[in-house]
Amino acid sequence: MTWMLIILAVNLCVHGVIEAHTSHVTSSGAAIDDASPSHTSTAGSDVDRCATIDDVITARRSLCPAQCRCWPFDDQEVLTKLTVNCSGAQFNRSTLRRLSQDLTKLLSRCVSELTDLTITNTPITTVPEVVCKLSKIRSLNFNSNQLTSLPSDCFTRTLNLTSFSATGNRLKSLQVRYDVTMI
Fold it and tell me: Would the pLDDT of 30 be above 60?
């Protein structure tokens, strides 16, 4: 009888652990939570968790920074395009730090096919380093932010980049590859 109580207690504990770990899984079976250390991700390693358009939509909706709007959320475009617009948002030091972290998380999930990225109307002063790891990126638009610098050698690592726009920022210098069209 004692053994049956011990087995029952162990089963209940194991069930609680399994339930806690599976709470981060969508109905399609794709994990969307990068918060735990075992779910770290880089721009190229998210394919197994973002196998469908629904996986990408779910990740974008859950990771879009607070006070910002992200789109598109439908059709095939969701795989290749992402716009983050924080127009009208009020940021302080704490929420700015959170915005930078949220952008890094967003740009680290379900972006293996991303070709067009727009981040606009934010108080960010630097481009998140993860942008430089977007291997298929062709177009970057960082208009109307507060950028003062870009990650070192970022453009030399974004080999497919053909268009870059950063009007309305505070950039003092820009590294340029000769095959990039400046808008």
Answer: no
Angle formed by the axes of helices 53-63 and 93-106, nearest 10°:
170
Question: 66-69 long-range contacts, Cβ below 8 Å, gap at least 24?
Answer: 66/95, 66/98, 66/99, 66/102, 67/91, 67/95, 67/99, 68/99, 68/122
pTM here? 0.71
Q: Does residue 35 surpass a pLDDT of 80?
A: no
Distances (CA, A) of 155 to 84, 127, 136, 141, 163: 21, 12, 12, 13, 11
Is the Cβ–Cβ distance between 139 and 166 less than 8 Å? no
Q: What token pair was written down for 100?
A: 């930078």
Domain of residue 65: give its range: 40-182
* CA pair distance 123, 35, nearest whole angstrom: 24
In a domain, 33, yes or no: no
**Residue indicated by tokens 């003062």:** 148
How many domains in the chain?
Answer: 1
Among the residue ranges 28-32, 63-67, 137-141, the one predicted with the least confidence is 28-32
The answer as to whether 135 is a domain residue is: yes
CATH label of the domain that carries residue 159: 3.80.10
